[in-house]
Design a protein that fits this description.
Length: about 220
């Protein structure tokens, strides 16, 4: 890699292969099996999605603050949600991501699906994610400053929906925009009692599978 951003990606201790390999090993020990997902976690430069002061902690398996009372999800959660979404042998087509945040989950997911439509309600985060994803050369993503509770009606139906904040109950709009055989991965519940759930649409029926306890920021409506 060459050009002015070279130093941001390579040659610094925190981005060393050893540091990243340790993270991948930890994720494998926690049950992440999908090799394509592990490869993305290894190769996406997580340190450029956080403030410089936190960059040395970017490859720890932990959530970190990104401002505006939001966090970048821990790598295990990003890997778990991505794996749950893309499981199986068919490449998922259109995916709606609710809660772009800093764009890290978006960058991990983008090459594993055909197209990502990502919504963020906080204006400055939306702008920052747009700039970072452009810098990384991620092309198959459309970003929108919008209210995640409404989904992205003009682009429905979605083969996958991934929600990066926890509603108390799943917004009806998201179920309405899910394609047949589509999967919706979402943390649901109040703080301290959230479960990650995978919903799968089967014609007129929706299957519900609990994937385990999680801790996310609450999902809020409206724009800021």
């Amino acid at each position: 890699m060459s050009g002015p951003t070279h130093g941001r990606y390579a040659g610094i201790g925190m981005t060393s292969a050893r540091t990243r390999d340790r993270l991948i090993q930890r994720l494998q020990e926690q049950g992440i099996r999908n090799l394509a997902v592990l490869d993305r976690i290894r190769n996406v430069p997580r340190h450029i999605f956080v403030d410089e002061a936190l960059a040395s902690r970017a490859y720890e398996d932990t959530a970190l603050p990104i401002g505006h009372s939001q966090t970048i999800s821990q790598p295990y959660i990003v890997a778990r949600m991505t794996e749950a979404l893309i499981e199986g042998d068919r490449k998922i087509g259109k995916v709606l991501e609710v809660g772009t945040g800093c764009g890290y989950q978006t960058a991990v997911l983008a090459p594993l699906v055909k197209k990502v439509y990502s919504i963020e309600r906080i204006g400055p985060l939306h702008k920052r994610a747009k700039a970072t994803l452009k810098e990384l050369g991620v092309k198959n993503v459309m970003l929108k400053h919008g209210d995640g509770f409404e989904g992205w009606k003009s682009q429905k139906p979605f083969d996958g929906i991934l929600v990066a904040a926890a509603p108390l109950s799943v917004p009806d709009a998201l179920f309405a925009q899910l394609a047949n055989k589509g999967r919706l991965i979402v943390p649901v519940g109040p703080e301290g009692a959230q479960q990650l759930i995978r919903f799968t649409r089967r014609d007129d029926h929706i299957d519900r599978e609990v994937l385990g306890p999680v801790a996310f920021v609450p999902m809020l409506g409206g724009l800021t």
